[in-house]
Amino acid sequence: MKPQAYLCLVLHNHQPIGNFDGVFEQAYQDSYLPFLDVFEGYDPLKISLHTSGPLMMWLAERHPEYLDRIRGLVELGRIEIIGGPQYEPILTMLPQNDRIGQIQTYGAWLEENLGATPAGMWTPERVWESSLTSDVVDAGIRYTILDDFHFRAAGLRDEQLTNYFITEDDGRVLKIFPGSERLRYMIPFCPASDTIEYCREVATNSPGAVLTFGDDGEKFGTWPDTKAHVYEQGWLRSFFDALCENQDWLNTATLSEATEQTQPAGKVYLPDCSYREMTEWALPVEAQELFDDVVHDMEDHARWQDLRSFVRGGYWRNFKTKYVETNEMYARMMHVSRRLAELEASGTNAGQLAEIRDHLYRGQCNCPYWHGAFGGIYLPHLRNAIYNHLIEADTQLDRISSGNPQTVQATADDYNFDGLQEVKLSNEQLCAWFAPGLGGRMYELDVRGIGHNLLATLMRRPESYHRKVLAGPSQSGEDVASIHDRVVFKQADLDKRLHYDHFARKSLMDHFYDNDATLEAVAKSEAMERGDFVELPFEAKLRRGSDRVQVQMRRDGNAWGIPITITKAVTMVAGSDRLSVAYLLENLPPGKPLHFAIEWNFAGLPSGADDRYFSDAEGNQLGQLGQQLDLHDAQGLSLADRWLGIDVSLQFDRPSGIWAFPIETVSQSEAGFELVHQSVCVQPHWIVTADAEGRWAVQIDLTSACEEKAETLGQQETIQL
Fold first, then answer.
1. Is pLDDT above 80 for 405?
2. What is the H or E stretch that residue 211 is in?
3. Does the N-terminal or the C-terminal CB of the chain have fewer CB atoms within 10 Å?
4. What pTM does this model have?
């Protein structure tokens, strides 16, 4: 019997919110445009195309001629437009209303701008939970594509994965295509003939089979070395030629055509899953290393092919525990989403909320919420973009809900879902978030005027791929390889730049060091921590005045086994761009000097540019933000970023030593291992000597681009948290 099969080629083109304009343009020139140039000449071929909302809107603005060409191919039936959530969020992290809203909003955009009403959906990162089914169907979607890995995890064998399946939740039925992992690794890295022979093998064993390839369009030109391979060396033309030469038995079809011309292979309920590599990246580092070692040891076992379907890694939601910074962004997003839902329920005019909803949806873009072979959460510009939209949405919500911009508020709630209460102080200039239960730290500080979170930081932590960094550059001679297999170093001596932090890089972190601790030891996180104030809980009280609010946090702890009490009070005044922080240390031992430091961190102030610099209290520039400082008897320090448009200054009411140093991570991206500047750490420090009553105090004022105002505390209301 002559083999017969359908091949569904599904391309996913995506650039995240916040990516640089030049990156969009380069990907367009290297991938999206040349692919279209080649594809247009092959009339018999059809594809399904998903372009994420951020990229599609950029194309509509910068290259409308590209969309005109896509529209023409849609009208010819050669391209099927695949929809999805508008700004490419991981759907499982969204409230139900936002899931449905994102899908419907993008569907409406595609219908208006391309004349296409999508019936199919790209599921971002193929992160799937069964409860998504009903929401996806309610949003108007009839089919989607996941990975065959999902189906194998449900117990299906490879030979059964020869068509789409149906699944159901709460009575809603959805068709799901199993994207082939084997095709993902073959295309475009293997000769076109290998793909044809694999399809022939499947078609011979399962006549009428539907094979599905679904993967990133960037692998056709943007991924390292692929531009030369795919276009200059002719791989794509050879692939399309091979498809045309074999069209008597292998027909390219859109997903829509496959559902119309074939019957489902059956019904299946899939476990919570994503593509194979993602499940591994979601594991804690030690578990990931163990997983890698066990898989490597077992691959030659006689029963491995039978066993491997039942071996998988972790669960996407655990990125929120693997990276506390992911949970902070997620919690901030959920706070905005809930506030927006409350205003909608109150009957607020929908037109007033449309822009806010768009900012919220943009702030849900998935890329900086996780990390794997791509930079993800390690890329500061992506984190900053998420916060920019969430802060702007929150600021607009405040304007609508309060009616009075000249207000200052203090609230307490479990804002980050850790079972503890956090504190939020906010006015029209700033929004500061504190975690009394975690050392009384300040973990977010929003400068509303520029929509920037100065604490969108990232701690230095071990990653499983650091074993490759320590092993050194690969000697592989491959001409082109999948990004999952490449070992490339973008800078030399990265193994010497691996340092790991014991604590998150936040502010108001209270350290006691040995008296002879050095900048070098502190910068490398090698200085011994002698106190118990950094992460253990503080008691907290809120005080509210007529024009100001204050959170006061107190802990009876110890350093070197000596009982010490620290009280720190943070005051915010209506209309001010200043936070005033008062520290009081009590029960200090007489005649015994102690080394005390208060850690601050500032994100979004990159290194390596002359317009990003330190200056002292007199305004003298001290160098770029990427260098280390070791100052003595200083009254303050300022950090300027002229591009971002912000000056952040710390001023002290007593002379201080100041350590300042960059926080840099060694992380993985599709281009290789690289050093990334994450933030600037500033630690004023003192050799503390008690007064006659065993006390020591300091006042620190932080200002962010606004003039200081001398204010006095008014009538107070005390609330115990």
1. no
2. strand 209-216
3. N
4. 0.94
